[in-house]
Automatic annotation (TrEMBL):
Domain HTH crp-type: 122-188
The protein's name: Crp/Fnr family transcriptional regulator
PANTHER family in the record: CRP FAMILY TRANSCRIPTIONAL REGULATORY PROTEIN, HTH-TYPE TRANSCRIPTIONAL REGULATOR ARCR
Pfam family, one: HTH_Crp_2
PROSITE patterns in alphabetical order: HTH_CRP_2 (PS51063)
């Protein structure tokens, strides 16, 4: 896309607020964006992830120019930025980009619904394993910088809950966790530790995007 500009996204930067006008869209390249919803004035919960498989601002395709969710950078790195006008021109009805992004919107809606159910019914350890796998899929790297506080906010639990869950995964030698750095040691084992939602995520993506 010739009208795209490469930008650097910085960890924890807010890139969208609920109700704010969408003036630019972002296509993460080597970055990850978390979609979160507020739970009271001082806490939130992650409901979706956007990596190099998707984009931020896809609701423009439905004629909605206001951001539906709070979005912040979970994994810093590069992204392609495109103005609202350029995007709408490139994604005009009938274009290849329009068709691909409509399929992506289906996948994203399924992810949001799956995450809502996951947060309600599954234990923190299994949810953390799923979150790590989803992040691993998007970063394509075994190492991840994330603070305990940030993880607690993403998962909607207290920091002690994160400590317990991460400690359990580390005890099983699935991850190494120290001073805000998580390293995936055993991908297969982590998949076994995750709740069934991760397999559902993968099936949705395979069906929706291929």
């Amino acid at each position: 896309m010739t009208s795209c500009v490469e930008v650097d996204l910085v960890f924890a930067d807010v890139v969208a607020e609920p109700g704010s006008a969408i003036r630019r869209v972002l296509f993460p390249v080597r970055s990850i964006i978390s979609l979160t919803t507020a739970i009271g004035p001082h806490s939130g919960l992650e409901v979706g992830l956007i990596g190099d498989e998707g984009m931020l601002g896809a609701t423009l395709l439905m004629g909605v120019d206001a951001a539906p969710l709070h979005a912040l950078v979970q994994g810093q790195g590069t992204a392609l930025s495109m103005s609202r006008e350029s995007f709408l021109s490139a994604a005009a009805v009938g274009s290849a980009l329009h068709r691909v992004l409509f399929r992506y919107m289906y996948v994203l809606m399924q992810q949001l619904a799956q995450t809502a159910a996951c947060n309600r019914f599954h234990v923190v350890e299994a949810r953390l394993a799923r979150w790590l796998l989803m992040t691993h899929d998007r970063t394509h790297a075994d190492g991840l910088h994330v603070t305990q506080e940030f993880l607690a906010w993403m998962l909607g639990v207290r920091r002690v809950g994160v400590t317990k869950a991460a400690g359990a995964l580390q005890k099983r030698k699935l991850i190494h966790y120290a001073r805000g750095e998580i390293t995936v040691l055993d991908r297969v084992g982590l998949e076994a530790a995750a709740c069934t939602c991760y397999a559902a995520d993968c099936a949705t993506y395979a069906a929706g995007m291929h």
